[in-house]
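User: Sequence recovery, please. Input:
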């Protein structure tokens, strides 16, 4: 949708396994060239003259398509998680070296203005030293919360998804927390279970970790809950609890924080993910035109996957 809305873009080709899905999308967005079949994304990348390859396939195909797009010098927007193993991450990193490719990871949450407001509050030291942060993110799971296009339920297949809810939702949480607080240092522990979906990987997961600046972190994700997203920030001078879905009011304390300019702005503001994906695509296009690599880039995508893989190492 974002590409169709951007006047600088022309959608030239689409690859999909099934003719039915390809037809649906190509007709909707007026895409002239259609490649159907499991491996035809390779033909598309070889045959078409492309500035951009945009990857929104199941997780296990992200790295192979990224590698092919790099070989053909295409700029890349890849859905999260950008890879499902350390080996894939290293291969991409190696191939990107000495290439002038703009690589964006699809962390569109960064374009929800609430996070910029929170970043300003943290950087202005309005709350003092941040002691701990907790990010809760949940929904009813793929196929219940939205109608996925492919019917194969690949999200529940470990080989195709690479993990469970932590890889799906947790990458967004750690990306936002890195954006707000800088690098995480290490994962301290994890607990998880599979309580509502018949699958190998986790559908509920809590991760405890620590940032390099010593802030404590908790990420709690679930595919078995009503849709909700909360961020809590506890600091020396006070606390803020934000409902990222915008359904409930900002909660903060002590009351004296009301006088603070940034908190006042935050109080007036209703968080929204609306049009975040379009904003990400506009930003990506602008970076290509100006030849500037900005975030969310490959490194952001890589750090998020590494975080999850480190957390998964506690499962054994
Ligand atoms: N950034 C975000 O917040 C966000 C939100 C939602 C999803 N995502 C990510 O987007 C990706 C897709 O998720 P989804 O929910 O959209 O899944 P989905 O509905 O199952 O869609 C997967 C798409 O990939 C296509 N596909 C599968 N195998 C293919 C192949 N070999 N060649 C070409 N196309 C192929 C499918 O088309 P056919 O059925 O025709 O093969 C379908 O269009 C995942 O990585 C997910 O994590 C990110």
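Assistant: Recovered sequence (316 residues):
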């Amino acid at each position: 949708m974002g590409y169709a809305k951007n006047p600088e873009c022309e959608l030239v080709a689409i690859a999909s396994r099934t003719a039915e899905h390809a037809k649906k999308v190509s007709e909707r967005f007026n895409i002239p060239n259609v490649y159907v079949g499991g491996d035809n994304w390779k033909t598309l990348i070889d045959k078409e003259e492309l500035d951009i390859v945009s990857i929104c396939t199941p997780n296990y195909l992200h790295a192979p398509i990224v590698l092919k797009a790099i070989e053909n010098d295409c700029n890349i927007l890849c859905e999260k998680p950008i890879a499902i193993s350390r080996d894939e991450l290293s291969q991409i990193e190696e191939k990107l070296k000495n290439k002038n490719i703009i690589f964006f990871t699809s962390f569109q949450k960064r374009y929800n203005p609430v996070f910029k407001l929170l970043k300003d509050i943290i950087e202005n030291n309005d709350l003092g030293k941040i002691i701990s942060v907790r990010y809760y993110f949940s929904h009813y799971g793929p196929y219940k919360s939205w109608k996925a296009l492919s019917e194969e339920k690949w999200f529940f297949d470990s080989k195709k998804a690479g993990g469970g809810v932590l890889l799906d939702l947790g990458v967004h949480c750690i990306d936002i927390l890195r954006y707000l607080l800088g690098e995480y240092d290490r994962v301290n522990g994890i607990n998880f279970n599979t309580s509502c979906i018949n699958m190998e990987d986790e559908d509920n997961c809590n991760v405890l970790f620590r940032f390099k600046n010593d802030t404590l972190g908790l990420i709690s994700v679930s595919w078995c809950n009503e849709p909700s997203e909360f961020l809590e920030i506890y600091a020396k001078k006070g606390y803020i609890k934000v409902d990222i879905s915008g359904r409930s009011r900002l909660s903060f304390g002590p009351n004296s924080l009301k006088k603070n300019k940034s908190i006042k702005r935050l109080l007036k503001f209703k968080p929204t993910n609306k049009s975040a994906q379009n904003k990400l695509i506009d930003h990506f296009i602008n970076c290509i035109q100006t030849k500037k690599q900005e975030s969310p880039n490959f490194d952001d995508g890589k750090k998020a996957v590494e975080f999850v893989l480190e957390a998964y190492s506690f499962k054994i």
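Residues 2-107+279-297 form a domain with the Rossmann fold fold (CATH 3.40.50.720).
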